[in-house]
Amino acid sequence: MKVNDRRVVVTGASSGIGAALARELAGRGARVVLVARTRSALEALAADLPHAEVVCGDLSTSEGCTRVADEVLAGGVPDVVVHNAGAGRWLAVDETPAGEAAAMMAVPYLAAFELTRALAPAMIARGSGQLAYMTSVSGFLHVPGSAGYSAARWAMRALAGQVRADLRGTGVGVTLLAPPRWTRPTSSTTPAPRSGSPRPASCSAGAARPRSWPGCAPTRSSRGVVRDRAAAGRAGGADHSPGGAHLARRAHRLAATLSLLGGRVPQPWVRRHRARNAWSLRDSRSSTSTPSALVP
Fold first, then answer.
1. Where exactly are the structural domains of the chain?
2. Weakest-pLDDT range from 112-126, 204-218, 237-251
3. In CATH, what number does 7-286 get?
4. 149 in active site
């Protein structure tokens, strides 16, 4: 699928990776539909993009998702939907205020679920389209100090897999995205981790030496994401985790081993595995320059 002259919906498009993706897609000829809560930010971005549409709405409620979906469909069935909207703070479970975990689950997970439910039938009826779900490498790890945030990213990963299974054979493809940490201004909805929080590179049990997690500018991620999706589409819409793909492969291998062992892992095997891999993101330094893709 080419993005030229295709209608592409990007949620969370007012800033960060969402805005960078919108710019990159528009630069490749896509007719971008910008979705977020802040109309002023969306209109400012749309003014710089050709053929851009603005859909302002709150995705934190099912009613808001329905209104956004209705407005999107009023302009035609989208060819690609990028579920990028997300918010949350890095807090341990005992530090999380009452109700905040529900808010972190509402966006991104429930927002992506409700939009998929509302938009997918029209895409299925047409027999084509692509759904992309944004998670992070914390959706592949258990990261201390980010209970609600990481759980919501695990939920996004599970949703992408389930939607792929549900839509197999319909002509609608599914992509899971897990970019590395990117550099962006701190906001009220997604503030930086608190001082003293462990870096994800050293969060898995047994990490002997903390390693830095390389950042990636949103524009850099978006360019690679758009550029490389064609190959992924030919492979059947696999998961993509630029800067962390090796972690996904290790996690899948470990899961297979655990199932064979009935959940019982010999400690000598664990020690050898930790020593060999150092449970770090060291390989991501070489992969952040060529992040895998979002849309074909």
1. 7-286
2. 204-218
3. 3.40.50.720
4. yes
